[in-house]
Amino acid sequence: MNTKIVVYLALGSALAFGACTNNANTKASAPVNDHEDHNHNHDGHEGHEHHTDHNHPVEPTAGSQKQSTVAPKTVDPISNIPPFTFYKVKSGVSFTNADLAKGKKTIFVLFDPGCHHCRDEAAALAKNYTKLKDINLYFVSMNDPALMATFLASFAKELVDKPNVQVLYDRNQDFIQKFHVPSQFPANYVYDVNGKLQSYWEGEKNINEIITLYTK
Predict the structure, then answer these.
(1) What is the pLDDT of residue 20?
(2) Three-state SS at 183
(3) Sign of dihedral through CA atoms 208, 209, 214, 216?
(4) For residue 80, what is the DSSP state?
(5) pLDDT at residue number 83
């Protein structure tokens, strides 16, 4: 296994059990050359020790430390939607880039079901569903599908069973290997009708700003 995959798998494991932060981090969609230190907060994930307002780098696993002595760094997301395979939480059926509804903007929300900022964003989106019915909205997580299965029903009931909304399990960690390695949850990625990245941000953001970025 090469160094890049080892690092990504270490990050996937850390993010899957991480949580969200209060600080939104808005970034332009255009590629840049500068890299940023990869940091994230742990904040009240169920079944794990709680950490509040405590930032720290994601540490490599013991296996990856032999190949790298520094915390991994992240770059901007991929500029066009790449090939991917996720799985519908309800049915377990695979969902790929070929299944994206054509002629619509596509939003990916990378989330943790135990993150209260992720829950708050989902609840706010649900209350504004009439403004979102013409876009593809996909909630993606690497977490336990059992936790994901009740996410919308618990926090965003208005989004349940909507034809343009899916909760997708990223079983093979395609997102962090092909799209982006975020530092905060929820991480939002807005792609236009041609699959080109328009904008993305990490962490909490005002719902009016979110709706504007989703629909403009």
Answers:
(1) 66
(2) coil
(3) positive
(4) B
(5) 97
Q: What is the pLDDT of residues 196-214, one digit of tens each?
A: 999 999 999 999 999 999 9
**Residue 14: inside a domain:** no
Beta-bridged to residue 110, according to DSSP, are 140, 187
pLDDT digits (tens, 9 = 90+) for 96-108: 999 999 999 999 9
Whether residue 43 is contained in a domain is answered as no
Return the closest-CA partner of residue 81 out of 53, 109, 45, 108: 108
18 in a structural domain: no
Domain count, the chain: 1
What is the mean predicted confidence (pLDDT) over 111-140?
A: 97
Higher pLDDT, 101 or 45: 101
Cβ-Cβ contacts under 8 Å for 215 (sequence gap 6 or more): 105, 131, 132, 135
8-state DSSP, 178: I
CA quadruple 173, 176, 179, 182: dihedral positive or negative?
positive
Measured CA to CA in angstroms, residue 75 lies from 19, 92, 94, 143, 152 at distances of 20, 31, 28, 23, 30
Whole-prediction pTM value? 0.71
Its domain, for residue 82, covers 25-34+76-215
Asked whether residue 137 is domain-assigned, the answer is yes
Q: What is the CATH number of the domain that holds 119?
A: 3.40.30.10
Helices (H), the chain: 3-16, 62-65, 116-127, 145-148, 151-155, 174, 207-215
